[in-house]
Here is the input.
Amino acid sequence: MSPEGLQEALKHLEIPADPNVLVGSNTADDAGVYRLTDDLAVVQTVDFFTPMVDDPYSFGLVAAANALSDVYAMGARPVTALNIIAFPEEKLPMETLVQILKGGLDKAREAGVSIIGGHTIKDDEPKYGLAVTGLVHPDRVVTNAGARPGDRLFLTKPLGSGIITTAIKRDLASDSDVEEITALMATLNRPAAEAMVEVGVHGCTDVTGFGLLGHLHEIAAASGASALISASDVPILPAARKFADVGAIPGGSKANLRFTEPCVMFEAGLDDTTRILLADAQTSGGLLIAVAPEKADVLVEKLAAAGIDPVADIGSINEGDAGTIRVTV
Ligand code: CO
Ligand code: CO
Ligand code: CO
Here is the structure.
């Protein structure tokens, strides 16, 4: 759903105060955090969606990697998960459901997470995801709100999954496009998160439905700062640029660009394709990390050692109107 829609709905609710709620629904963060003791907090998040690829096993892998990502983005370690499943049992064979669940289970196993239950409903269109519980020290929670002027910004996966999965739905993508994007979306943000926790960073979120610009806007707004990114430093999958040029653009990405436009200043000369790519709604995107400049080199080293390729230094956090973003060519 659109960011405006959710914010509007939340305005109508009175959310009771609880001192143990360290991160709640009022701050647009990736997951909620609740303090159990002085040195232990639980992190909870839920994510599920309709298939973005045809292969049910791949769908399970991607949906699970995506749901786990919100725990990693908080600097936490996921421990358990529950399956959330909607499935049209009259329309699709049981084997399809088995493959979706197998994908989820395999990805959870890779993450060291136990799936300990779940809930299934009958529905016209399949949907799958996880409710994930993680653990973190209450003092080491990484939120949207901690970025500071001077911080460097890093992105750990290239952009383009929204546009490429739209191209898949329109039958424009080749088998190798499908393989490449599936592997990228199914990649856990765990190694990147472990590197970031080891180094100690100021802020983080994962880039998902609101696109890079939408999520960067959230970090900047929550941190009371502005942001600057250089479009040519943002890694973008070549296939995504190709499909964007022929108009395979999801409605969500167009909505993201519209929603962020009032806060974004594009340098003249930035082409429309690049603008929409920067707003492209990602599935299971990478981590967007704000780190103190003196720690940037060691973060680059650790991310590279963790297999992140490319390690992209895309810009900085700066003094300025909270939530505004300047994009240079
Ligand atoms: Co998130
Ligand atoms: Co989420
Ligand atoms: Co977060």
